[in-house]
Design goal:
Blueprint lengths: L2 H9 L14 H10 L7
Protein name: L-sorbose 1-phosphate reductase
Organism: Klebsiella pneumoniae subsp. ozaenae
């Protein structure tokens, strides 16, 4: 899942009740965690 897809899911017109982000690339997951901290998630 790309970072743009995460952003769209969080801020787009239709918000899912559950969003699961997975990847095999740990630096990419860390980047997503930093840019979408828990306090900013719905």
């Amino acid at each position: 899942m790309g970072l743009l897809a995460i952003d769209y899911a969080l801020h787009g017109p239709i918000n899912p009740s559950l969003l699961v982000v997975t990847d095999t690339n740990k630096p990419k997951l860390s980047y997503a965690r930093r840019h979408y901290p828990l306090s900013r998630r719905r």
